[in-house]
From TrEMBL:
Residues 105-451 form the Solute-binding protein family domain. This is ABC transporter substrate-binding protein. It comes from the Bacteria. The chain crosses the membrane at residues 27-47. Keywords: Membrane, Signal, Transmembrane, Transmembrane helix, Transport. Its main location: periplasm. It holds the Pfam family SBP_bac_5. CDD domains: PBP2_NikA_DppA_OppA_like_17. It is found in: Periplasm. InterPro entries: Peptide/Ni-bd, SBP_5, SBP_5_dom, TAT_signal. Belongs to the bacterial solute-binding protein 5 family. One of its GO terms (cellular component) is outer membrane-bounded periplasmic space. One of its GO terms (molecular function) is peptide transmembrane transporter activity.
Length: 549
């Protein structure tokens, strides 16, 4: 076991654990974040550390997974955690690894330390890692990737996570932008050591490094991923056809040891949920990247399939553009929330496979979630707010819903019926997923998939911090931004939850969203598939998996 006794944060975390301010699972998560080895953290918490699932013997074969085959060219600007990145993540790896329990482990980084003020993070690059072209993986490769994702011209959503501690706001040619806050913010200490010198404290840096657009690319790629791209991962992409198929072949020289399968094929099964059911029933594929609630009843009857699920913070956010009428008025936005009963949506859209949301995008699955007063349906109150906003006869708009998540339409239909009672008339307009994601930040009202993140403050930073790439609603609230930065730099879980509670209240009062439910993410796999575990973000790791004969 690693000696973690000199970690400057350990005493404080153990104190919170012993006096009940922090549960054992939360202790393990936060201890791992500040550099305590997972083995030590589990031992200190008095919990057994599960052995990571991985196939034990190389048996070969081709694993076929049903999914959607989306555009993959620009990993640093991906917007699909479960589609595009599940192709490239077999080739491109990450500096850290957050497991299905929410515990963050070293990966391409071997270990790290953080200063007592949570501002100076020192990361040790794992020695012995080789790119697929035979080159050694070094600190220079890390710095190239970090610098690239923080370039505003690239447009990576990483900016939303790190803006509070690595970036400054600037104006360029009359437009708001960002820049890295200091020349030594990203520092090369030596060939195998990288240091982040932050302007503000931040507890979640290692989790940010596992955000799916933070895939580590070779500088020669110039940010483009394609067939034959160089990677450090266990596979090489050998075939790609948009909307049809991606083929990945196992590397024999992978630094982490050879994969147990020879080939992974990801096959596009389309937007029609019945097509995926048919493909599984006929054994054309071994499993789905993830399943939809509408597929559950049919798939659970197939005896050759195993069911996998995990509670998550995955959600379909109905969001409103704050710079477009009528949603520029916060009273209208609040009225939209007040007219909804989340329990109804949970039953109709998810068939109970999840938990109700509270219109603030913070989930009980998050360790920093704060329980605040429930947001009750109040139709009379919604009508009163609309009248105060200058809409005594109600409001009308159009809700654009991508059809690549079948439950989105059921959620929308449920909400539309409830909105009618408050004088809110909403027209439902389905749109092909590929077309929606070209306009998702522009439509006045739309439904967006937001996948699970390990901490609620990560969701809030990505989606609602002023001016960041994924702030699809154009929301801007100075008090919210200030409190978010405060929460990001607070290791004391009790104090952080107090701050998160304030953020949640702002979202309920002023925010740009109607967010009725969180879903439990699940899938079905052929029982021949071994080494698979359901990750809350729908990430799949083919190097762990094998096929029985």
């Amino acid at each position: 076991m690693t000696d973690d006794s000199d970690n400057p944060h350990l005493g404080f975390l153990k104190e919170q654990l012993s006096d009940g301010r922090m549960g054992r699972r939360e202790f393990i998560r936060y201890a791992a974040l500040v550099g305590v080895s997972a083995a030590s953290a589990y031992a200190m918490a008095g919990l057994p550390m599960a052995t990571p699932a991985r196939a034990q013997a190389a048996k070969g074969g081709t694993l076929r997974i049903g999914t959607r085959i989306k555009e993959i060219k620009s990993p640093h600007t991906y917007s699909w955690g479960g589609y595009d990145s599940n192709i490239s993540r077999q080739v491109l790896e990450y500096l850290t690894f957050t497991d299905e329990k929410g515990v963050t482990h070293p990966y391409l980084f071997e270990k790290w330390t953080v200063s007592p003020d949570l501002k100076t993070w020192t990361f040790n690059v794992r020695k012995g890692v080789k790119w697929s072209n035979g080159q050694d993986f070094t600190a220079d490769h890390v710095i190239w990737n970090l610098t690239r994702v923080l370039d505003p011209a690239v447009g990576s959503s990483m900016i939303g996570l790190v803006k509070g501690y690595l970036l400054d706001d600037v104006t360029v040619d009359g437009k708001a932008s960002t820049k890295i806050w200091a020349p030594n913010a990203i520092e090369k200490v030596d060939d195998y050591t990288v240091r982040l010198n932050c302007k503000a404290p931040q507890v979640a840096v290692p989790e940010h490094l596992f955000h799916y657009p933070m895939a580590i690319m070779h500088p020669d790629s110039k940010g483009v991923f394609e067939v034959g791209s160089i990677g450090t991962g266990a596979f090489t992409l050998t075939e790609f056809e948009l909307g049809k198929k991606a083929t990945l072949k196992a590397r024999k020289d992978y630094w982490g040891g050879p994969a147990s399968i020879d080939t992974m094929e990801q096959i596009d099964v389309g937007d029609d949920a019945s097509a995926a059911i048919a493909a599984l029933a006929s054994k054309q594929i071994h499993g789905l990247m993830f399943a939809d609630p509408g597929q559950y009843d049919a798939l659970k009857t197939l005896p050759h399939l195993a069911f996998y699920d995990v509670p998550t913070a995955e959600t379909g956010v109905i969001r409103m553009r704050c710079d477009q009428k009528p949603f520029d008025n916060p009273k209208v936005r609040k009225a939209m929330r007040m007219a909804i009963d989340p329990d109804v949506v949970l039953k109709v859209a998810l068939r109970g496979l999840g938990v109700v949301g509270e219109h603030h995008h913070c989930s009980p699955a998050h360790p920093d979630y704060a329980k605040i007063a429930p947001f009750k349906r109040d139709v009379a109150g919604a009508k009163k707010l609309l009248a105060e906003a200058g809409y005594p006869n109600g409001v009308s708009s159009e809700l654009i819903v991508p059809n690549d998540h079948a439950w989105f339409q059921a959620q929308a239909e449920s909400c539309i019926e409830m909105w009618k009672e408050a004088g809110i008339t909403i027209k439902l307009t389905p749109m092909p997923g590929a077309a929606y994601w070209d306009v998702w930040t522009k439509v006045p009202m739309g439904t967006t998939i937001w996948y699970h993140r390990p901490l609620s403050i990560m969701c809030l930073g990505l989606a609602y911090r002023t001016g960041v790439p994924w702030n699809e609603s154009g929301y801007s609230n100075k008090e919210f931004d200030t409190l978010l930065a405060e929460a990001e730099g607070t290791l004391d879980l009790t104090k952080r939850k107090e701050t998160v509670a304030k953020l949640e209240a702002i979202m309920q009062e002023d925010g740009p969203l109607v967010q009725p439910v969180f879903r439990s993410t699940f899938t079905f796999m052929d029982k021949r598939v071994k080494g698979f575990s359901m990750h809350p973000t729908n990430y799949m790791f083919a190097w762990k998996m094998s096929l029985d004969a």
